[in-house]
Write a structure and sequence with these properties.
Layout (H helix, E strand, L loop, with lengths): L1 H36 L1 E5 L6 E8 L3 H4 L4 H17 L3 E8 L18 E2 L5 H16 L10 H9 L11 E6 L14 H11 L8 E7 L31 H8 L3 E4 L4 H4 L13 E3 L10 E6 L2 E2 L5 E4 L4 E4 L8 E5 L4
Parallel strand pairs: 2-3, 2-5, 5-6, 6-7
Antiparallel strand pairs: 1-13, 3-4, 8-12, 9-10, 9-13, 11-12
Length: 337
Amino acid sequence: MQKKSKAKNASLVLGLFLTVLIGLSACGDKNQLLQTNSSLSFTQDYNPPLLDILWVVDDRSQFYSAPGRSHIVEEAKQFFTRLDSSTASYQMGFITADMLNAQGRLQPVSSPIILKKNMGTLAQRVSLFSSLLTQVAFNGRTSGVNKAFEATAIALTSGFKPRTNVPLVIVFLSDSDDRSSVPSSQSAVTYYGNLFLSLKGNNPDLLRVYSINYERLAQGEAVNSSNRCVTLYNADIDGPNFQDRFFQLADRLNGESSGICGAFSDNISLAGLRARELPKRFKLDVAIQPSTLRVVVSLNGEELDGLSWSFDETTNEVVFNQAPPEGSRIDISYLGL
């Protein structure tokens, strides 16, 4: 009986110790989270402080077993890293070109994820991006027909609605041509180009399209795994009815294009993401107590006076009457709700 009692007491002490330890750990995590969410800094330049980014990936069966799959994933990760560093904050969604099952819904369909810059470190975001791209882009379960434009139109009017006055970036990743239906006599590039632009108030400065796809072979160039790294033979681009919709859409909307089998992470310029005017509005990612808001603007380490600002509770933004000068730093502190 005495041995049982001692064992029981030891168990209770151990349990109490673990409870306290877990409690302290939880408190530490909570305090760290509060500390992380209580301040935000922006560097004022012509790169937009916010971006909406939608990846539209071809998830047909040939992508699943493509010999160039690892190359595509690695290049996409590097391109993502460049996008990540080009803005202070973003929201990024993923859809597929499949209109049989997914129909423009955010991926993974069972548990949609919108990736944001405040999700962990850059390394953690790259890892999550790679995981999403691998799961989403190479599932091999679609109809075999690429209807990326249609899927994008649905996503941008339902699950991934563009935010007002926030630049929108659309990245098309495929090895084929688009075969979206067009409910008018216009070409698909004209119809969907106008539709996407209308969602940004017909302001071309707020829309940027990237197309990553096969490129045409040079005269006399033979098909091989280096230039046809996904579909080796019978690729859409090598057929007689190829319309080249993806590259044409990128050209129409002042975007950028690159070959999927090459170093597309370096070949696509991000210069078009630069805004024409310095921003006056800076959005907070969390709900705050407005009375606790503090804003300090500094340039070269010296605080700037005379810049008036207000807080727009409807949009959760700090709004300056006059844009802070280029190169200045905007430090915003607050208490969250």
